[in-house]
TrEMBL record:
Biased composition, class Basic and acidic residues, residue ranges: 438-448
UniProt-listed GO biological process terms: endocytosis; signal transduction
Protein known as: Formin binding protein 1b
Keyword Coiled coil among UniProt keywords: yes
Keywords (A to Z) from UniProt: Cell membrane, Coiled coil, Cytoplasm, Cytoskeleton, Endocytosis, Lipid-binding, Membrane, SH3 domain
Similarity annotation: Belongs to the FNBP1 family.
Entries under PANTHER family matching the protein: FCH AND DOUBLE SH3 DOMAINS PROTEIN, FORMIN-BINDING PROTEIN 1
Residues covered by the F-BAR domain: 1-269
Coiled-coil region: 365-392
Top-level taxonomic group: Eukaryota
Keyword Cytoplasm: yes
Subcellular localization: Cell membrane; Cytoplasm, Cell cortex; Cytoplasm, Cytoskeleton
Segments forming domain REM-1: 358-435
């Protein structure tokens, strides 16, 4: 496809496109420059780290150098220093092979583009000037024809009004009118000839303009654009080759570290300890018995073995050898707080993936909705700016002395690209939001759960019971005083895992839960997605894995499941498909 034959009337669009191509080269140059700076800073930090842990020049160094693990560490530091050097090589090659080349090429590209569009504008101005001259000849021919018609009509009128009494005078006037008419007709004929010849000339110039001059200019622009794209491709290949070139040396550095680690010999280091601290003396012999008489009693030494035993022997207190991960006391509370603190920290620090998949469903939905609102505001801002620039361009078109309308086009093009990018982001986040809303529990389920709590007494007791049912994601706290706990005990607790005194810290109470009975199974579930349970109280599951449900979601987004007798924990409800047994649903 040739630009000259297919895009003969798209001069302005080609001008915008080639300008965008130059801006892309500038953007890629900036990208490579920032990558080079990152490599330089990384190499500097690695060198500083290696230097920081180099052994100090003192007497201790000689002793440390005798151990194989110290030698291995020193070798690792030296190899790490060489490793940093390879990142400096990457930075240097990026600068010399890409940044410098693209900077020089940009200067040439801008000059070539400017020259081609200058020729194009010159050709357009020429054809427009020829068109104006053609219009001028046409108007002159039209004017002369009208004048000739008027002169002929005047002559015919004078010739028709001749009378006998004024014959001589009328003959002279008629003769002048005839001459005037003939002259006008001659002028009209000359104008017609000029118009015809210039029309033929203009058609030839116009044909040459649209079939020869403009196609040649556009072909040059097409060749220039293709060379630009090819140059970008070469630079991108060089970008990867720069890394690939240092891989052998980086591999040697890593091999050196591995060899250093494999050279560590624990037995040799143990022998070195003997060599370093061996005194060479023989152990002392038996102490001879000294009898000072039967009546004397030897005073026990403060360092005697019996005293030391007696001093060390103390009554052992009660200790527990196991801690259950799901007991109904403050261990579960700490589990909840740890998980909550981790999630709050993630929200504050802004960590996590772009789709907020690390958050619970409700928090994820809120974050996605907030992101959509921000994107829509940005789109509206860009559209307002585009409208303002469009109005400014209209003013420039109507009043050229105020500014060049073409100067606004690059910015309008940039704003259009920004709007397209933002709209793409909106579609992406809307898809994630729809996915979250499909997986969230229905409102009817939420109303059913809330109805259970509304039927309880409207006191602090019902509030405490509801708080006891929080998942590891909840915001449960231990700020309930003992008086409230006592009041809550007589009332029925809707929680299937009752905890009459979660703040009690007496050993006798804790022992009641060491032999807790295993919760019954109320159904099964199938993992829809993989989940890595990093936090305390959660359990990792694989996609498609079948598990037993032992505690249903209480409205907090978490379901308690069991893999076998020893493995159980919480998983996000949105990550599993639950199949409850009939009796569990009825209850």
């Amino acid at each position: 496809m040739s630009w000259g034959s297919e895009l003969w009337d798209q001069f302005d669009n080609l001008e915008k496109h080639t300008q965008w191509g130059i801006e892309f080269v500038e953007k890629y140059t900036k990208f490579v420059k920032e990558r080079s700076e990152i490599e330089t800073n990384y190499a500097k930090q690695i060198r500083n780290l290696s230097k920081k842990y180099q052994p100090k020049k003192n007497s201790r160094e000689e002793e440390e150098s005798k151990y194989t693990f110290c030698k291995a560490f020193l070798t690792t530091l030296n190899e790490l220093n060489d490793y940093a050097g390879q990142h400096e090589v990457i930075a240097e090659n990026l600068t010399s092979q890409i940044i410098a080349e693209l900077t020089r090429y940009l200067t040439e590209l801008k000059a070539e583009r400017k020259s081609h569009f200058h020729d194009g504008r010159k050709a357009q101005q020429h054809i427009e000037s020829s068109w104006k001259q053609l219009e001028s000849c046409k108007r002159r021919f039209e004017r002369d024809c009208k004048e000739a018609d008027r002169a002929q009509q005047y002559f015919e009128k004078m010739d028709a009004d001749i009378n006998v009494t004024k014959a001589d005078v009328e003959k002279r006037s008629s003769h002048k009118a005839r001459q005037q008419a003939q002259m006008r007709h001659q002028m009209a004929a000359d104008s017609k000839g000029d118009y015809s010849s210039y029309l033929q000339k203009f058609n030839q110039e116009q044909n040459e303009h649209y079939y020869t001059i403009i196609p040649n200019i556009f072909q040059k622009l097409q060749d220039m654009e293709e060379r630009r794209i090819e140059r970008i491709g070469v630079c991108m290949k060089t970008f990867s080759d720069v890394d690939r070139q240092v891989l052998p040396i980086v591999g040697k550095c890593l091999d050196g570290m591995t060899n250093a680690a494999e050279s560590i010999e624990p037995k040799t280091d143990s022998k070195q300890v003997v060599e370093s601290y061996k005194s060479g003396f023989e152990p002392p012999g038996d102490v001879e018995f000294e009898d000072y008489g039967q009546t004397m009693k030897r005073t026990a030494s403060d360092t005697s073995l019996s005293n030391s035993r007696e001093g060390k022997e103390k009554p052992a207190g009660k200790s527990k050898g196991k801690l259950w991960p799901f007991i109904k006391n403050k261990n579960k509370l700490s589990l909840k707080l740890i998980t909550l603190n981790s999630q709050v920290r993630n929200l504050i620090e802004g960590s996590g993936p772009e789709d907020f998949s690390h958050l619970p469903p409700e928090q994820r939905r809120k974050k996605l909705q907030g992101k959509l609102d921000e994107l829509n505001k940005d789109i509206q801002k860009e559209m307002d700016q585009r409208d303002a620039l469009t109005k400014m361009k209209d003013v420039y078109v109507k009043n050229p002395q105020m500014g060049d309308p073409a100067s606004v086009d690059p910015r309008l093009s940039e704003i259009g690209q920004n709007i397209e990018k933002l709209q793409f982001e909106v579609q992406k986040f809307e898809g994630w939001l729809a996915e979250v809303e499909e997986r969230m529990p229905s409102k009817s389920d939420s109303h059913r759960r809330s109805g259970i709590y509304e039927t309880q007494n409207n006191t602090t007791v019902s509030n405490n019971c509801a708080q006891d049912r929080e998942s590891p994601d909840g915001s449960y706290t231990e700020e309930q005083n003992s008086e409230t706990q006592v009041k809550a005990n007589p009332n029925p607790n809707p929680n299937p895992n009752p905890n009459p005194n979660p703040t009690s810290s007496t050993p006798e109470f804790d022992d009641e839960f060491d032999d807790e009975e295993t919760l019954p199974t109320i159904g099964t579930c199938k993992a829809l997605y993989p989940f890595e349970g990093h936090n305390e109280g959660t359990i990792s599951v694989a996609e498609g894995e079948l598990l037993y449900v032992i505690e249903e979601d209480k409205g907090d987004g978490w379901t308690r499941v069991r893999r076998n007798e020893d493995e159980e924990g919480y998983v996000p409800t949105s990550y599993v498909e639950v199949f409850l047994e009939a009796n569990a649903k009825d209850s």
